[in-house]
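Field reference: sequence -> structure
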Amino acid sequence: MSSLPGLAPSPPPELANYWEATKNDVLLVPRCTACGEAFWYPRTFCPFCHSNELSWEPASGGGTIYSFTIVERGMGPWEAVVPYVVAYVQLDEGPRLLTNIVDSVPAELSVDQRVSLVFDQAGEYKLPRFRA
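Structure field:
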């Protein structure tokens, strides 16, 4: 578990299944059953074909760093944890998600590096983050 702060989410009822799964360290990825596309961020319709026919699949937990930045100055609760990494991670299932890379040396990270899913407690739920 990293030392990065995280705001506790207040999920809408239609995304309760996604957030409930995080309590058990499961990242659910929505996939459209009409067009077959997996996507991120969780929502109730497909951003590709606008269908509301979705399935929610557990992610494997693997991915690669698509892009990242090392933040050297933070504000509020983030001020005490600099430097920290904000990254887009390309999940093995296809979608990219904006997240943090934790428990890793920022200067040793690189694009296309393999990462694995970890969760950080944020109130009642958990936030998906990744470790190199």
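Note: The beta strands are 28-32, 54-58, 62-71, 84-91, 96-102, 114-122, 125-131.
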